[in-house]
Amino acid sequence: MTIIDGKTTARQAREEAKKRTEALRAKGIVPCLAVILAGEDPASVSYVTAKEKALAEADMASRDIRLSADISEAELLSLIAALNEDAAVHGILAQLPLPKHVREDRVIDAISPQKDVDGFHPVSVGNMVLGRDGFLPCTPNGVVRLLQTLNIPLNGAHAVIVGRSNLVGRPLSILLTRKDINATVTLCHTGTKDLAHYTRQADILIAAAGKAGLIAGDMVKEGAVVIDVGVNRVGDPSAKKGYRLRGDVDFEAVSQKAAFITPVPGGVGPMTIAMLLQNVAAAAEKTLDA
Ligand code: GUN
């Protein structure tokens, strides 16, 4: 069994992004991402901090926009409209979840597709579905890159995805069925009857349900590749922070069966950030031929 080291693969992708930044800087362009965080949800604060640190390490610029949780939807939309017009800003990221009174769809739709480095805008999603050029969402793209870098055979493989979120499960099902990747996909969700019946058939099992320990040892085929996208905070009084991060996979049990498995943390998470940097580089490069 091999524990997949997402950090090493992510480091390579981040180095690539940094090289692209240096080439852009030589032409007078500094790739810049505007990062909007409304409120102080602790998980979001830590994600945003990690993204900004990675941007700085790739010599990219960021606009750190921290807003109160009670910002109005209208204010947020007018802020995004200004960033859309700002030529020094190449990408715009509104960290989700947004405060409850703000309609997420309105915010996602307000970001210019040219600056949609999260790949959440309906235009980006449409381009992805049609196999056209556009920004790919970072976590699904990171999972694909991780599998490709490890030379996991994808052509004709049966990938079973657990979770149909707009952020991960559903876009991943689309990417994996692209012709150049060519996997067969089963997309399971909370309405799936007898989940284990499907997961046991997986050559590649991707857990993205947001439920700690959902995938038990007896749900996995011997020799499967297991990718755990779950990041769940589970209370643990013995831990320094009072919680521990756990994936959707029961790592102890499943690692006895799997040929490859990602840990949480240190598996998929670092890839998400690396793909974000690549999208920011791509957004800045596009201004060269505009
Ligand atoms: N919240 C959790 N993951 C993400 C992400 O990839 N992008 C944004 N904007 N918000 C998130």
Describe this protein's structure.
With 290 residues, the protein is an alpha/beta fold. It folds into 2 domains: 86 residues, Leucine Dehydrogenase, chain A, domain 1 (Rossmann fold, 3-Layer(aba) Sandwich), CATH 3.40.50.10860; 131 residues, NAD(P)-binding Rossmann-like Domain (Rossmann fold). 39% of the residues lie in helices and 17% in strands. The strands form 3 sheets. A 6-stranded parallel β-sheet has the order 1-11-8-7-5-6. The N and C termini lie far apart (48 Å). It binds guanine (GUN). The site of guanine has 9 residues, from strand 4 and helix 6. The site of guanine (GUN) has 9 residues, from strand 4 and helix 6.
What key phrases describe this protein's structure?
290 residues, single chain, Rossmann fold, binds guanine, three-stranded parallel beta sheet, six-stranded parallel beta sheet, alpha/beta, globular
* CATH-assigned homologous superfamily of the largest domain: NAD(P)-binding Rossmann-like Domain
CATH fold type of the largest domain: Rossmann fold
Oligomer: single chain
Helix-strand pattern? EHEHEHEHHHEHEHEEEEHEH
Coarse shape: globular
* Number of extended strands: 11
CATH C-level of the largest domain: Alpha Beta
Q: Spatial order of the strands in the main sheet?
A: 1-11-8-7-5-6
Radius of gyration: 19 Å
Q: Main β-sheet, in a few words? A: 6 strands, parallel
Class per helix and strand makeup: alpha/beta
